[in-house]
Amino acid sequence: MNRSWEEIFMENCGSERLFLLSIASSVALVPLSSLFFSASVAFYRKRKIFHPMFSFCFFSLLLLYYSSTTFLAIRNITFSFYGENYGKAPRIADHVVINCERFYMAISYFIPPLIAIGIIERIFATAFSRFYEKSRYWMTLGYALVFACILVYIEFANRHVMMATIPTRNIQVLFAIICSWSLILLLFINRSKSKSGRAKSALSERYQVNENLKALRIHIPVVCVDTGIQIMFLCSDIFWNTAQVLNLNYCYDDNIYLHKFVVFRLIGFILQYFIPFIILHRFSQMCCNSLRRRPVRRSHPISPSPGTSPSSVVTIQNVFGMTLSGEANGPAGQEAHFKNLYAQWN
After folding, report:
1. By residue range, what is the domain housing residue 327?
2. Which of 25, 166, 255, 281 has the fewest CB atoms within 10 Å, i.e. is most exposed?
3. What is the DSSP letter of 299?
4. Residue 275 and residue 222: Cα distance in Å, rounded?
5. How do residues 327-346 score in pLDDT, each as one tens digit?
6. Is the domain of 273 the same as that of 311?
7. Residue 296 domain-assigned?
């Protein structure tokens, strides 16, 4: 029996299925948007412990995550209220749905370039740690952002043009490759710096290397999660014609297109939830306190013996290689150092 195109579309992607998809997406997006907002606030309060350029790039990235999830949540909530009557909805609802979807797509296109810029900034901070502490390459960062905006405009302007699908996909593949290889290079340079020995370097270089380690503890997990999401949606688009954005044109030819889209979107949401939790675990005092490592208080305090003195003076250095106690302080200075530690620990 021959069916019309409208019957095929209603069977594969009917209004009831789209309505349920919008509701489910809204339920997942509203908490995610709140978590990204909390993560942005938590990082903003601690931004001064990092280099200003890293703080700018990473805070901008968190704002993009928050904005994209918020616009998509507003779009899905608005669509859920109208359901089957979306085409007959008031003009204000049409504008809300269409413009929120446009903003979401534009921001989603801009996230990979900003991640690549952030990784490259960390590569320079690690490779040139000797003088990077006081460097402010704002002009170079501005040029990089302008170039990223041009590529994003090309992707966004040609998102509905069939002949431009391959160039747009190539741009996304390019950023995925840049992020992956830059991350590998960053880890290699950081490992080389750690093996070379920070104690032998100048104080400013040791300070910059330690700052890099703090930044990488939050930057690398976020980059890995986001790059994994990019690669997943690129592979799903190439092999299964299921991109990150819903394309109802595939509903005419693919009977299970909506099912595939739901599966990949669900995996993407689950992975995205890791990003704000990583930030909150590092910076927020209210989140994940039970998971953080705390010092164990001794049940029986250990005090230094008053009648004995150490037979030899031990040289003690901090993480920067600075001597805290040694032969220059003598046995009395070393004993005072240990008594100070005893007072702090007990």
Report:
1. 301-346
2. 166
3. S
4. 6
5. 666 677 677 767 766 665 54
6. no
7. no
